[in-house]
Amino acid sequence: MYLGHLSRDCRVAGMAASCVSSICCGCAIALTAVIAFGQSFPTKPVRLITAEAGGGADFIARLLAQVLSTDLGYQVLVDNQGGASGVIAAQSVIKAPADGHTLLFYSSNIWILPFFQSNVPYDPVRDFSPVTLVDRAPTVLVVNPALPVTSVQQLIALAKGRPGELNYAAGSTGAPPHLSAELFKSMAAVNIVRINYKGTGPAVTDLIAGQVQLMFATSGAVSGHIKSGRLRALAVTSAQPSPLAPDLPTVAAAGVAGYEAESTHGVLVRAGTPGFIVGKLNQEIVRVLGNRDLQAKLLAAGVEPVGSTPAQFAQVMRADMAKWGKLIKERGIRND
What we know:
2 domains, about 20% strand
């Protein structure tokens, strides 16, 4: 648009040829500079900001950083900035230069948080540029074996026959186990009461002990207990069968048509980061995610490697915000 205006102005002045020639020369010089700069990226170590040390995001971030450091030619440093539901990490990226040397690796909580918490100091669409979706993982619907159900349909029938009597365990408000359960309640039209826990560990312990009847848990948290028979798995929450639980049907196929709930992690940069840098980061991270050794480690940790274009990741974010924003509003979920 800007070049078009310049050309019209030049024609009015009778200098179209001279103007176009000048513009072309200028564009060529600028393009050469862009290409040269893009080829030299990065020019210093890269910070990969993520959640607290020891968690799932930290584990995945360190796997990525190890391989990326070799591929990029500069060290990728994992910077753990947990707390405040991701706000601290997000603000660190927003305040950093928009040059691609500071990355945010976080869960979908980053773009869902503004729906259930007031005064979030960032806009997930305005303030960030998506780079790539890194992984996804369904939760697993598990019940205490004493509960007389072996399928999703039987669970729904029992819950409808005993409204308000069944309890489900969940940790943080807005985390995948919580939202998966609330989506199930909404779509299956059942009244199951949430029992709040400070973390997944205590929740699973009480589920095994029969203090609560069911839970939507991450695969890594319950797979061992499913194998030992201390918990009974009914279904996975992905839209399609998952390699993380190949013997289980999906909730959608087992009785709640259209149901889908997955946790995801992705890499974002500050908005305004040049497109060629976003493209370079995308290319390198997607290549890393194609590494078979890394894929095996991710699957063993309970997540499926993905890799996407920035546009595909942006679409995932928009779909999440529409879906979960609607549910959060309808059910009055707050985390203030």
